[in-house]
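Thread: quick sanity check before group meeting

JM: Hey all, I'm pulling together slides for Thursday and realized we never actually wrote out the predicted structure for the chain we discussed last week. Dropping the sequence here so it's in one place. If anyone has concerns about the input, flag it before I start.
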Amino acid sequence: MARTVLVTGASGSLGRAVVKAVSAKGFEVEAATRDLSKIKPTPGVAVVRLDYADPTTFAPALEGAEAVVLMAPPMDPEAPDKLIPFIEKAKTTAVEHVVLISAMGVDQNEQAPLRIIERALMDSGLGYTILRPNFFMENFSTGSIAPMIQQMGGIFLAAGDAKTSFVSTRDIAEVAAVALAEGRTGKEYTLTGPDALDHTEVAARISAAAGREIAYYALDEETMLQGARDNDMPEGAVQYLGVLYAAVRAGYTAAVTPDVAQVTGREATTFDEFVAENAECWR
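JM (edit): ok, ran it. Output follows.
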């Protein structure tokens, strides 16, 4: 079993959860981020700088690591150009196992940026585990949807009335930690919550937890994308967002899998459990 794990994207909500879960398994952790001020060193966790746009940071970040939890920048169509050189560098180091955080459904589209990275990792000769999570529950509490709820009292998305089996970052992180601890290489897992909800149902559950009315407003795609542009989202990410929610409306995010429970030995977090734990975020 690897002793030292490099966790990329460690300042994000999933990255923080992965650092915690991997540390709990007894690993030494190197938490990697572009901005060192975003992570405070803690016992068993060192902070290292990693910037995919600066390949000179690759070798120092990888030094001493025997495994990597690898995450791409969110909604980045140029992610293969950034992560594949990093994987190539990892091949020249002591790294033996890479856990890639991909996304649900990308294995159905060989041109998807994350699928291109998956293929590169599979062909690299490194031990690999690929995790394909659905949309995060935490998008509603600390992620991109949280400000809508907190400031405007609603969820404004072009999701139609389609269902999504939202998954908690805590569960994704636990699967990653188990995969490392048990050496689950050559494995691919699709990670979802235990049930699928539409956004009207999501809004109702958040409303009940928050003690105030939160509504879901089903936007048309162009309105949603223009809102993203108005909030200074780069155009490449705007187009990525459009693809994601087209998949939601088509029903591709509604499937429920048993993978979280099969890997961790416990049931995946329900959305009701999530809202109960995070009610203060919306009050």
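AS: nice. The chain has eleven helices and eleven strands. The mean pLDDT is 96.
JM: adding both to the slides.
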